[in-house]
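Hi X.,

You mentioned you wanted examples for the new student's onboarding notes, showing what a folding record looks like when two proteins sit in one file. Here is a clean example. The first protein comes first, with its sequence line followed by its structure tokens.
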Amino acid sequence: MSGITVIGVAAVTMVIATLVIAPPYTCHATINNNNQQQLHPIILIPGAGGNQLEARLTTEYKATSLLCNRFYPLNKDKEGWFRLWFDIGVLVAPITECFAERMTLYYDQQIDDYKNARGVETRVSQFGSTQSLLYLDPSFKHITSYMEPLVESIQQLGYKDSQNLFGAPYDFRYGLAPEGHPCNVGTTFLENLKQLVENASHANDGAPVILVSHSLGGLFALQLLNRNPPAWREQYIKHFIALSAPWGGTVDEMLTFASGNALGVPLVNPLLVRNEQRSSESNLWLMPRRKQFPLETPLVVTPKSSYSSFDISIFLKDIGFEEGVHPYETRILPLVEKLVAPGVPVTCIFGNGVPTPETLYYGEDGFDKQPEIVYGDGDGTVNIASLLALEDEWKDAKDQKLKVIKLAGISHTNILKDDTALAQIIDEISTINSDISSSPFVSSL
């Protein structure tokens, strides 16, 4: 997801720390579980960069360079599958360009859906287990830790992988579409997730499931709930805990589309990966939502124009990505029009008080140059208005329990590894397992 020339170990660590990944961490929340309470099964749904992707090249694959031929990389399994994301080798140029080429999606207007590059097959590994969520690359555990601190903390409550603790990885490049539009990859993931929920419940004496999501995973989880009938939710869902969920999108996403996003890594030319980042359906899904970013609030400013969340189509044209306008208007806008309350208890936990991109100012050099950034409140990635979207939109929702927990100074990635954040998450899971009820609307600072 980022363009790298030649990067050392220190810079690699910075890459990992910014791609929705928790940096190396050795301390975990300590749990005293002397009271043997019922453990509702938990399913973890990761954020975008927290999923491992594997790829396989078919005879239809056409390389754009000698290095990117069908025989690279040499390290494949017997069926031709190799690690696509995350592979630490992509941090060395010109391999980065091969990576971007193979990660790029294409929107086909004839079929109204996204698909892989020609000749590239992809899959996630170990669906149902948390194993692929622990590290992005198990060969480099010390610098690619993701959910490992959270999983270890949950296991201290008595949870065991694939028995009452499960993982639901997905191809994070793809998103979802509203009713009436095909969405093969995203819809298949929701079907698999639904089946995993039912299997987890049945394997645990019919106990309903606790969904725990991070970042983009929260948007998929909410869609899962609202695409299934109330009777299903009542039977199979105990609670939904959303960590750092970008309910209303982010201003940072506009930076990604306009100029490419090097994610804070030095020596990186973000323009090298801009096209690949623009091609991601899920990135388009994370554009700022109108209800959280009002018309009178400029998000991007140039010498000749300014763009609010109501001007995304014009913005896409002006940055040279006109092909993104149709899917944005026909698929994304209807999808994000409403954040429907699912009628199951929801807890949102997120950080605040971390400088977060709020307005992007571009000069005469245009969008090929990085902008000056004015920062506001948020978790460093997601703006506070987006993080608080459910509290605002569900305040009048009947029979909807919502608890909002704010953690001062905790960033979008640190929520998965900080001691205070882990303790809060574990306390919330323990409270749910104890069936201790909470008031419908609670804010904790």
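Then the second protein repeats the pattern, sequence line and then tokens:
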Amino acid sequence: MGFYRNGNMRSASFLDGFQSDYLGSGKGKLKATPAKTNSPRLVTVLTCVQLAFAVYATLLLFYMSPTVDLRSKPDFAWTTQLALQWKQLIIPNTVSHLQQEVPSTGTMALMEPLNQPINMSEVCEHETIDFEQKKSDNAKMIKLKKELYDEVLEFQSKTFGTETLSELMALKSKWDLKGPNKAKVTVILNHFKRKTLCSQLNSLLQQTLPFHHVWVLAFGSPNEQSLKRIVETYNDTRISFISSTYDFKYFGRFQMALQTEGDLVYILDDDMIPGKRMLEIMSHVAGTEKYRNSVLGSIGRILPFRMKDFTFPSYRKFGIKEAGLYLPDPAYDILVEKVVQVDFLSSSWFLSSELVKTLFIEDPFTFMTGEDLHLSYLLQKYRDAGSFVVPVDPSDKETWGDSEHRLAYVSETTVIFKDIVQVRDDQWWTTLTSGYITQWAAMHPQKIDAFFYAHSVSEVTSLAPLLEKFRSTSGKKAYIAVSGGKYCSCEDAATALKWPKSVCKERRFKIFDLGVGTLSKISKSEVPVVQAVYAAMKGLIKMHNPSVVIAVNDVDVSVKKALKMATESGSVGGNATGVMAPALMLLPRATLPKALWIADIRSTALPFWNKMRISINIITQNRVHSLRRLLKSLTDAYYLGDDVPISFNMDCKVDEDTIKEVGNFSWPHGTKTLRRRIIQGGLIRAVSESWYPASDDDYGLLLEDDIEVSPYYYLWIKYALLSYHYDPQVSLPELTSISLYTPRLVEVVKERPKWNPSEAFKKIHPHTPYLHQLPCSWGALFFPKHWREFYVYMNMRFTENAKENPVQIPKSRTNGWQASWKKFLIDLMYLRGYVSLYPNFPDQASFSTNHMEPGAHIAAKDNVLKHDKNDFQVPLLKDDFRNYLPNGKMPPASKLPSINLFNQPVSLKGLKAAGAKLGQDVLECKPNEIVSVHHDTGLPKECVKF
């Protein structure tokens, strides 16, 4: 590469004549003339004359030096005037910048003078434009193009704002043309074949805002010498010529832009002749708060829109509206009179020198073409920067950045061949599927249920069952993004999913290759991976608005960070579509085949996936063998990657073995907490004080140590919470808890008759879950609002003598229960019409069972009731419970049957009516009213109608 910088360099060859005239000619040296006299006075005079001439010659040579610009020096001496006359005589102004070479000896090599002056007319060439501007006569296409343009402008005016040129110039700007803070703009002109350099330089020299530098680039140009000669002729120190025999293509100019010391960079194709106000306008707009983080230009493109068949056409497809827009487009009489955001700019780019660096964060799709789209894509991806076509004043061509559009059709070098069109089509599709939010994506935000991410082929294989379940479920939509490159290519992922590899080439949303594997091929740092995954997924999430993003929980740590940041980047309380930001679901691989029910949850409930906090609270004292069995069942269960804290609540008489067991127990799913009472409190206090909610999303699972749980217990809890409590489309305020256990007896009736829910609900569905007014004490998850309510209620009604309790439920044997926390909860639920959700599977198989081991109630001395294990111990579910549910999923809340305390079918309203009729609550209410409470405190508030 050759760098040729203009300066006021002048030839030194005239010194030959200078020496001849003043120092004598001849064979190379002067011959001494013998003196006719030896008079000292004569010698002194000659010496003085020689000295004076030496001083004069020194001054003369200094002011003729190429480092001195006499045009900028004040006229302060006769020597200056004389030197200037010599300079103009010997080297005319039309000749400039002849290179000087310094030999290794340190002496200046003298150059031959030019024989004749060089005139502008001799070096400047101009393109011949002997045709009219292309105009379409296709009325249909003119109509479609203008309709699409109007739609884009209308959308942008509502979401971002579209200003006219005068409105833009009225905005406050960092750069002030009339003030001291003027922008330093480096202009880069890239030339290959077109004969437009003189026209460009003439326009730039007449700008209302003077440029800082102009760099003329000629990379692999066949016209290098003529371009160089033109630059020399302009004789301007601010204009430099840079050339190379190697063609750096379209990225080379941006590489050069990295070297600028100016504030702003203006890169122009050789077919762009800017109006005289362009630098002023562009600098002003770039200095505004609204557009400072943007790339500005005069020509841009809006990429294709999706067609009715859900595919995207080529951006050069003719005859359809969905092919996008070229702006401005004289062929369709579309002029940009308001600023418009585009997907990429063409032919000119005006941006801060800082933003230029963004182009090189990722390797381009190809170095052969596409630098324009690559710049806009990466600016949005990593800088959240937009690309804008600046409007013009239709009546003033000095405000146009493209004053002669017909030049674009002269000596075309880009995007005219079929193979190049295909490359650029592939490029923009790659950017769109890597998170680039095009104007189509901004105008038409999508809504899908799930977005899967896999960083390796093995992760694709693990996620495949759940992905397929989503895609095969009616009304559901899910896509998968893969890292790409060396980690997991699209083709390898398609093979793992048993999809044809052609899905990687179709312009249809299904699988997204993020190209992360093409980055940092030799870097060991996690930063490039985090940055690339985060930026791409953030764009895809914004574009497709998934309810949940799903990955395996052992995904690479850096990827996990990136996914977490991407999902959290959604605005608080919702985004442009009015939906919540997605939840990040990191699922254990072993659980994935057991969690296919996730696809059946409404998309409105899925964003709450991580909102709930489920804690396990174990009540234990001196049954260490029972405790071990419970802990093993909890450890062996399937979890969903959630943080699940566990606590152990021990009374003061806990034995040594239990303390050791609890202390040595390691819990991999969350924190472990130990609590031990100083004074023996009994079972009523041990249970009721084992947990208290910290928030409205804090749920407590209470387990006594003689309980054992099914491997599916946690999946049942999460599924039920999302289906009946967190779904915004479901209203079930009566639900207070979720039971793990299915009872076989009607325990509140003295006779305790056997009861089988499968038989009772066979007309609805033999295995439908159901709502029961009875709370469960053998494994249940309690809701925070109702637990606070229960605390207050029990505090107001607790008496040492059970007969003093004012609540006496007709025909219920619970009226005589003493020291039972469950009795108070039964009273509360009866009085206010509350229910618990129960499972219902063959043979009453459940998610928990009670081993009926001796304790505070079972086999207690004062308990005369005999217990048959067969009536209480139920089998644990060992296989996927979805197979038993109606239609393989949880039924709608409105379809859940409800029964009262005595296992009799009663509607939810009927349950409230029975409690109101009893009239024994803490507030005296009318027969058609029940007590409502402050849910944040649980304190009674008022009576309300039901």
